[in-house]
């Protein structure tokens, strides 16, 4: 309505929402400051269009910054419109979507603009875990504005024009844009762990629409259920071929083969994302050893270990799922932790965060061991010992301390190859065999890979009414 059809910021809103559903709020708001002749500059809606509408019938609140008005800068009234939108969203329990195209703080308003940023940060913090928050960056998102995506749950960035940075690339010692553009979509998605998806403006808006359809509106009312049109007893006959690239394996398990991956360019040894099982949204975390491109060619390969980036990515995702009462499914295929000097600086802390997230989550949790599950890395991946409600394992899985051959070399140093092979076979039978783990209760059921979909659907249906009390405290500190 009005501004929503007269500017690029408005066009983005109408492209995102269902047709003719947008209702603008605060159209007449303008800047109050008179310093530096600001009143002589026309500022329709003070550079941000705010309002509400629906996506596939789901209520959402949207703000879209207008770079054609004072470069989309944030001032007192600009921020007041956004915070008022957050107040409405929290009262009604609906997501907030921010479409960002902003030159940062409005210099003409100085401390008023600083207070404005602070007021947005506060509302985002209060809304965190209460309603989903999504940010899409279509232009500049610099300085204090870059903190706003960091305080939301999901962030998307336009691959060519989107720029996100706290300090501009040329302000970094020894760096310049041509050497390393730290503000570019590629750097932000691959190196910072902040970005969930990149693409054209049209692709990003499509991704947001798909994501909204998968998420509950708020932490109390889980309305992310749809009628399942897929066969609940469908077998996944080719799933073993997808055990390396678990983003594909998860799509085989999912209703109608649809899996929405998050942060797919960051920490690629771990896959995170959403799928539906019997019409209900489930969050998934899985180890990955291979990445295949759209043409089916192997693009990347990993060594089966967990990296610090992957662990931190998993931790944040599980915390989101727990906050919004979304069940968690894990696919485990891991041999240890990434062993590099760089990883060693962060791995203990990152894995600690991941274990804490799994152990602290009270939502239904199901784990399927689809390959190797060795050592502490296996324990960290939502094992029975850290709180998984049900653990399944494929009949070809291996669960134990370490690879049997390596264990034999450690236990029998200096022995001949024949002896080591014999001892390794015995170790494999006694300690690494999946039946051995099942006999101890660490695995609830050994299943055929093709039956994975049937078992996990049944598990989550059984766990639907799960309730779990925890020690009374304010919050954890990990």
Q: What percent of residues adopt helix (DSSP H or I)?
A: 25-40%
Q: Could you state the CATH homologous superfamily of the largest domain? A: 2-enoyl-CoA Hydratase, Chain A, domain 1
Q: How many helical stretches?
A: 15
CATH class of the largest domain: Alpha Beta
What is the CATH third-level topology name of the largest domain?
Answer: 2-enoyl-CoA Hydratase, Chain A, domain 1
Structural class: alpha/beta
Q: Provide the number of structural domains.
A: 2
Please, what is the oligomeric state? single chain
What do the pLDDT scores average to? 89
Number of strands: 20
Low-confidence stretches: 1-5
| N-end to C-end Cα span | 46 Å
User: If you compute it from the alpha carbons, what radius of gyration comes out, rounded to the nearest whole angstrom?
Assistant: 25 Å
Please report which band the strand proportion falls in: under 5%, 5-15%, 15-25%, 25-35%, 35-45% or over 45%: 15-25%
Q: Which architecture of the largest domain per CATH? A: Alpha-Beta Complex
Specify the overall morphology: globular
Strand count, sense and barrel status of the largest sheet are: 8 strands, mixed
Protein name: Carboxyl transferase
Organism: Blautia obeum
GO molecular function: methylmalonyl-CoA carboxytransferase activity; propionyl-CoA carboxylase activity
InterPro entries: AccD/PCCB, AcCoA_carboxyl_beta, ClpP/crotonase-like_dom_sf, COA_CT_C, COA_CT_N
């Amino acid at each position: 309505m009005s501004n929503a059809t007269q500017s690029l910021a408005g066009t983005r809103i109408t492209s995102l929402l269902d047709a003719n559903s947008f209702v603008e709020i605060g159209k007449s708001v303008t800047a109050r400051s008179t310093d530096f002749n600001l009143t002589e500059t026309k500022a329709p809606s003070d550079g941000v269009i705010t309002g509400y509408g629906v996506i596939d019938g789901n209520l959402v609140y949207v703000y879209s910054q207008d770079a054609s008005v004072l470069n989309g800068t944030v001032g007192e009234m600009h921020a007041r419109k956004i915070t008022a939108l957050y107040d409405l969203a929290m009262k009604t329990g609906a997501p907030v979507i921010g479409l960002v195209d902003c030159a940062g703080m409005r210099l003409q308003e100085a401390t008023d603009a600083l207070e404005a940023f602070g007021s947005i940060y506060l509302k985002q913090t209060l809304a965190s875990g209460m309603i989903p928050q999504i940010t899409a960056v279509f232009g500049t998102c610099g300085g204090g504005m870059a903190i706003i995506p960091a305080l939301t749950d999901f962030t998307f960035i336009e691959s060519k024009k989107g720029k996100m940075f706290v300090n501009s690339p040329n302000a970094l010692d020894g760096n310049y844009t041509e050497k390393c553009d730290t503000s570019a979509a590629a750097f932000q998605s691959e190196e910072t762990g902040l970005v969930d998806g990149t693409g054209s403006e049209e692709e990003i808006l499509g991704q947001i629409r798909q994501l909204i359809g998968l998420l509950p509106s708020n932490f109390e009312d889980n309305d992310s259920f749809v009628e399942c049109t897929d066969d609940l007893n469908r077998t996944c006959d080719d799933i073993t071929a997808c055990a390396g690239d678990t983003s594909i394996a998860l799509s085989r398990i999912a209703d109608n083969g649809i899996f929405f991956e998050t942060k797919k360019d960051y920490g690629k040894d771990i896959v995170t994302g959403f799928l539906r099982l019997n019409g209900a949204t489930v969050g998934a975390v899985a180890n990955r050893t291979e990445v295949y491109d759209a043409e089916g060619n192997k693009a990347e390969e990993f060594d089966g270990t967990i990296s610090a980036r992957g662990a931190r990515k998993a931790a944040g995702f599980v915390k989101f799922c727990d906050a919004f009462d979304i069940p968690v499914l894990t696919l485990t295929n891991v041999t240890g932790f990434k062993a590099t000097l760089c990883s060693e600086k962060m791995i203990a802390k990152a894995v600690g965060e991941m274990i804490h997230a799994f152990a602290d989550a009270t939502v239904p949790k199901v784990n399927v061991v689809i390959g190797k599950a060795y050592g502490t890395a296996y324990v960290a991946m939502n094992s029975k010992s850290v709180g998984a409600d049900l653990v399944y394992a494929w009949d070809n899985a291996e669960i134990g301390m370490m690879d049997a051959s390596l264990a034999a070399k450690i236990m029998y140093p200096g022995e001949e190859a024949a002896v080591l092979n014999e001892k390794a076979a015995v170790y494999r039978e006694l300690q690494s065999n999946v039946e051995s783990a099942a006999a101890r209760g660490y695995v609830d059921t050994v299943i055929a890979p093709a039956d994975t979909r049937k078992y996990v659907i049944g598990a989550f249906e059984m766990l639907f009414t799960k309730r779990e009390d925890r020690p009374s405290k304010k919050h954890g500190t990990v």
